[in-house]
TrEMBL record:
Pfam families per the UniProt record, alphabetical: Amidase_2 (PF01510)
SMART domains, alphabetized: Ami_2 (SM00644)
Top enzyme class: hydrolase
Species of provenance: Pseudomonas proteolytica
EC code(s) of this entry: 3.5.1.28
Superkingdom to which the source organism belongs: Bacteria
Protein's name according to its UniProt entry: N-acetylmuramoyl-L-alanine amidase
């Protein structure tokens, strides 16, 4: 078992604490979901080097050998989701969308459409919409993208650690498997990212 200390760090002999203040952007007031990513970098060190500069990042990083690093406090927001979220109602059940609004949005050009969809979705609350930076924890798995649709396979050791980590976070934040998303599900990303991640 693990626990979350007052600094928002997950205390367990399975977690190596390596916090980067530069990727923390204000307070995270509640955790409703987990988002699984791949780094598009060949090693953990490449990602750590990037985290020294202010910018995007995630709360955890799982190396290819299964080592789990916590890279940001669970009480702080990280920029891991991206600027534009997809529409959950369109992806899951079109009938639950506001059809008049959707009809209006779908007359727009693609660029205008994804911006309008994002604004429309952000007016909803989770779980009616996909998670955003202000209500989710990001978990990165070390892995390089191979081409426009594929990433390196997640290793067995990574999946084993991911399962352990996700189960701990379910308990600490009262979540279930329906609250875990692959990054490309929720924003416009390489569809292969985290496609071979398995957490249940
Ligand atoms: Zn990602």
């Amino acid at each position: 078992m693990s626990f979350v200390n007052s600094d928002g760090m997950l205390i367990s002999d399975k977690v190596i604490l390596r916090r980067f203040n530069a990727i923390e952007h204000g307070d995270l007031h509640g955790v409703q979901a987990l988002v699984v990513h791949q780094t598009d970098a060949p090693t953990a060190q490449h990602t750590f080097n990037g985290y020294l500069a202010k910018g995007s990042g995630a709360h955890f990083l799982i190396d290819k050998n299964g080592f789990v690093y916590q890279t940001a406090s669970l009480k702080k927001r990280c920029y891991h989701v991206g600027k534009l979220i997809r529409s959950k109602c369109l992806a899951i059940d079109k009938k639950t969308c506001d059809s008049a609004q959707m009809a209006r949005i779908q007359t727009l050009s693609w660029t205008a459409q994804i911006k309008a969809l994002d604004a429309h979705e952000r007016a909803k609350s989770y779980p009616e919409r996909y998670p955003v930076n202000s209500d989710s924890i990001g978990i990165e798995l070390v892995g390089k993208h191979l081409d426009t649709s594929r990433y390196e396979s997640v290793t067995a050791a990574q999946n084993q650690s991911l399962q352990w980590l996700v189960n701990e976070l379910y308990v600490h934040f009262n979540l279930s498997s329906g609250d875990v998303y692959r990054h490309p599900q929720i924003s416009y990303k390489n569809p292969g990212e985290a496609s071979s991640a398995v957490w249940e």
